[in-house]
Design a protein that fits this description.
Layout: H1 12-25, H2 30-46, H3 48-59, H4 64-90, E1 93-95, E2 105-112, E3 115-119, H5 127-138, E4 142-146, H6 152-165, E5 171-173, H7 178-185, E6 191-195, H8 198-208, E7 215-218, E8 224-227, H9 233-245, E9 257-261, H10 265-280, H11 296-311, E10 315-318, E11 333-336, E12 353-359, H12 362-370, E13 379-381, H13 385-394, E14 423-424, H14 429-435, E15 437-444, H15 462-468
Parallel strand pairs: 3-4, 3-6, 4-5, 6-7, 8-9, 8-13, 9-12, 11-12
Antiparallel strand pairs: 1-2, 2-15, 7-14, 10-11
């Protein structure tokens, strides 16, 4: 990040004040919300190719098509879903009062909160900035966005894009590094959504605590694949490969380790090797669709996992190509049978490295998953419905794709969020709309009601009390 373009920390509170004052003066109605979403969609659609090139520049190299899919299509798809359902979501929702309170009636009204803060990460820098922003706009809020300093060109792209779409008192963007991010998280927002690591999420939560700022925390963790004995290894390998090596594994819900029946481990390794060869060949340094590690710090961290595995005598299997630190190129690599003490099994990997551990029984595999903090995603592979139901009953995760990876995140009607160390709260679709609204309960009392009789001396209303407490 060019520090000359950073937002001064002293400017953050005045910006928030300006956004809040404008919101208070004119709370967005349906027409404004819809118009904002339509302009945002059109502006992003015009810039999809420029967006992909900009993200690639930040990564050193990133698959243009993966950016168009994950940052372009996913964002446009979510905006389309918001537009389709917005009018219905905004309407008051009837709520039953029960016979004891007749003839009163009740409703729940989704009302905007005010100003929503969004702290976005670097791995999908457009998707994870604009989907929360669009959801907050749909809910009738103004937005203050802090994109990642690790993708500075994309952050500047977002600031330019949003300046074209929104007035400065409706959406603002703060640029800067850790110091600006810490000050941003400490602002008294009406809601704050953070996407990033669990370690930073704890700091964000602590910063928000003095203001009791409501939070949505989208974190990470070690998302397991549980391959059952009945599922075909070749098909599982293809779907694991897609989930793991899309964006070079720099995905919060990428498979983080695989649990495989002991007798099928070697077959899975061979199948994964074939998948990598079929997708990328050996020419990794020139392949358009294999993304680089975003920066030198992340590359060194990942290389440290491999060094630790080698020092422990673990089998480290490079599936194709070779590493090139000069361009932050790290090929798909397996680590076989790491113990819990191995560094690669202690932290979220967030890269193209994949530990594989064999198990003797399904209950052993489930116990391995449950011994860890609850993951952001779980990927069980089995053709037996009873087996899948057993796994779902025995585990807790932020989300699940059965017999696949990643795709539950792309379904607009499903909420997305973690549990425990992998997150707090959820968004996407109406879940996100409701999270960024106050669901205001309203009771409409009737002209005449039995409640008027419930006052001392209660002996006069004994017949009514006896009726309602029966």
């Amino acid at each position: 990040m060019d520090t000359r373009t950073d937002t001064p920390s002293t400017a953050l509170q005045p910006t928030l004040d300006r956004l809040r004052a404008a919101w208070q003066a004119r709370k967005p109605d349906y027409a404004q919300r819809r118009g904002d979403l339509l302009r945002l969609r059109a502006a992003l659609k015009r810039r999809l190719d420029a967006m992909a090139r900009t993200i690639a520049d930040d990564f050193g190299h990133r698959s243009l098509d993966e950016s168009r899919i994950a940052d372009g299509m996913a964002t446009l798809n979510e905006i389309d879903h918001l537009l389709k359902h917005l009018r219905r979501w905004m309407k008051p929702r009837r709520a039953a009062v029960g016979w004891r309170f007749w003839p009163a009636r009740a409703q729940v009204r989704p009302v905007p909160l005010g100003v929503v803060g969004v702290i976005a990460p670097w791995n999908y820098p457009v998707n994870l900035a604009l989907i929360p922003l669009a959801t907050a706009i749909a809910a009738g809020n103004h937005v203050f966005l802090k994109p990642s300093e690790h993708t500075p060109r994309t952050s500047a792209f977002l600031r330019e894009l949003l300046a074209e779409v929104f007035p400065a008192d409706r959406v603002a963007v703060a640029l800067g590094g850790a110091e600006v991010g810490a000050a941003f998280a400490a602002l008294p927002f009406d809601h704050l959504l953070f996407t990033g690591s669990t370690a930073v999420g704890r700091k964000v939560m602590a910063a928000a605590a003095p203001h009791l700022t409501p939070l949505t925390l989208e974190l990470g963790g070690k998302s397991p694949v549980l391959l059952c004995d009945d599922y075909p290894v070749e098909k599982a390998a293809a779907r694991i490969a897609t989930g793991k090596w899309f964006n070079c594994g720099q995905t919060c819900i990428a498979p983080d380790y695989v649990l495989v029946p002991a007798g099928k481990r070697d077959a899975l390794v061979a199948a994964l090797r074939r998948e990598v060869q079929a997708r990328y060949g050996d020419a990794f340094d020139n392949h358009a669709d294999y993304t680089r590690i975003v920066n030198e710090g992340q590359y060194a961290r990942l290389q440290g996992y491999l060094d630790d595995a080698s020092q422990r005598g673990l089998a480290v299997v490079t599936l194709a190509g070779h590493a090139d630190p000069a361009q932050r190129l790290l090929p798909p690599t397996l680590v076989l049978e790491p113990g819990d003490d191995a560094r690669i099994m202690q932290d979220e990997i967030f890269g193209p490295l994949l530990p594989i551990r064999s198990y003797a029984t399904l209950d052993d595999a489930i116990a391995c998953i449950n011994a860890r903090e609850r993951p952001l995603a779980l990927y069980p592979f089995s053709r037996e419905r009873a087996t899948i139901e057993h796994i779902l009953h025995a585990t807790v995760a932020g989300g699940v794709s059965v017999n696949d990876t990643l795709f539950h995140n792309a379904i607009t009607s499903l909420p997305f969020g973690g549990v425990g160390a992998s997150g707090m709260g959820a968004y996407h679709s109406q879940t996100g709309f409701d999270a960024m609204s106050k669901l205001l309960p309203v009771l409409w009392q009737a002209r005449n009601t039995g409640g008027d009789l419930l006052k001392p001396p209660y002996s006069k209303a004994k017949w009514l009390i006896d009726l309602i407490v029966r």
